[in-house]
């Protein structure tokens, strides 16, 4: 008999707020966000510039702390960064003096994996991100897309259960970006990680995610939590699906509303 118990959410954001002090004034960047993300879910976060997307992601990652409320990972309050969470940012932050292989292996430096296991993990993720043959290349010899593949491999190599991605494809050209989105979905399907993905690109948010969260602008709050019911595995053909167009229209309308509010409040 299967257990009727519902699994606790992997990420639980509970009444979280974040204030900053700017020139002696309190800026409420995020106000009372409640958000549960389940194991293996792919969640995209969109919203106008400055609505608090990165602040929220940084708090989930333990790089920043809430002013109020609590974030829990697998039921445990977040207390700094941890090996259960991998980060990928827009800028690649690779070590220029290290080869692809060494950049990825560096993430395992402090891990307890045995040497042979480390070799195996590095080789596995180089292959998973499609960089076989480039093990000995240096970052300056790689394109933007390839550098971001190294960053993804480095974030996944110590097998975190959560991948936090802050506009990871924002600096890439449209074609490379499309390829990277498909690669990311394949990796997500093969490795079963929970992904929180920030983007300004509404097509990208919908194409990738199980849920799209739209944040309202200052203070950042959840404006919409929309489930994306498009079949998986997804390919680029889904972009022409009428359901896709309807989701897109809804998200764009929300973002436009928030942008207008921010502009009229002098935040633009
Ligand atoms: N360390 C900080 N000190 C002061 N204010 C901050 C700090 N970090 C963020 N903020 C402010 O908090 C608000 C939210 O910033 P955040 O970077 O999270 O927004 P965002 O939605 O990720 O923006 P963008 O889409 O432009 O990257 C902004 O008004 C920003 O200026």
From TrEMBL:
Which Pfam family, an example, fits this chain? ABC_tran
- List the Gene3D superfamilies: P-loop containing nucleotide triphosphate hydrolases (3.40.50.300)
Q: Which InterPro entries match?
A: AAA+_ATPase (IPR003593), ABC_transporter-like_ATP-bd (IPR003439), ABC_transporter-like_CS (IPR017871), ABC_transporter_ATP-bind (IPR050166), P-loop_NTPase (IPR027417)
SMART domains to which the protein is assigned, alphabetical: AAA
Per UniProt, residues of the ABC transporter domain are: 11-242
Q: Does the keyword Transport apply?
A: yes
* GO molecular-function term, one example from the UniProt record: ATP hydrolysis activity
Keyword Nucleotide-binding recorded: yes
Q: Give the record's keywords alphabetically.
A: ATP-binding, Nucleotide-binding, Transport
- So what family is this one in? Belongs to the ABC transporter superfamily.
Q: Under what name is this protein listed?
A: ABC transporter ATP-binding protein
Name its species. Answer: Hoeflea olei
């Amino acid at each position: 008999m299967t257990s009727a118990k519902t699994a606790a959410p992997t990420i639980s954001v509970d009444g979280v707020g974040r204030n900053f002090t700017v020139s002696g004034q309190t800026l409420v960047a995020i106000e009372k966000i409640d958000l549960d993300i389940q194991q293996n879910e792919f969640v995209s976060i969109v919203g106008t510039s400055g609505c608090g997307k990165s602040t929220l992601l940084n708090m989930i990652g333990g790089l920043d702390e809430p002013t109020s409320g609590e974030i829990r990972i697998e039921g445990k309050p977040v207390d700094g960064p941890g090996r259960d969470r991998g980060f990928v940012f827009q800028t690649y932050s690779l070590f220029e003096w290290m080869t692809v292989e060494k950049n990825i292996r560096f993430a395992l430096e402090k891990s307890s994996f045995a040497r042979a296991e480390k070799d195996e993990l590095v080789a596995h993720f180089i292959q998973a991100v499609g960089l076989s043959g480039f093990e000995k290349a240096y970052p300056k010899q790689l394109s933007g897309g390839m550098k971001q593949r190294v960053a993804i491999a480095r974030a996944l190599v110590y097998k975190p259960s959560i991948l936090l991605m802050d506009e990871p494809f924002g600096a890439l050209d449209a074609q490379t970006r499309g390829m990277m989105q498909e690669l990311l979905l394949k990796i997500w399907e093969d490795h079963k990680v929970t992904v929180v993905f920030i983007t300004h690109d509404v097509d990208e948010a919908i194409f990738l995610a199980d849920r799209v969260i739209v944040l309202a602008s200052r203070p950042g709050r959840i404006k919409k939590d929309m489930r994306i019911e498009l079949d998986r595995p997804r390919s680029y053909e889904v972009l022409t699906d009428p359901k896709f167009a309807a989701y897109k229209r809804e998200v764009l309308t929300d973002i436009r509303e928030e942008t207008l509010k921010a502009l009229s409040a002098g935040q633009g």
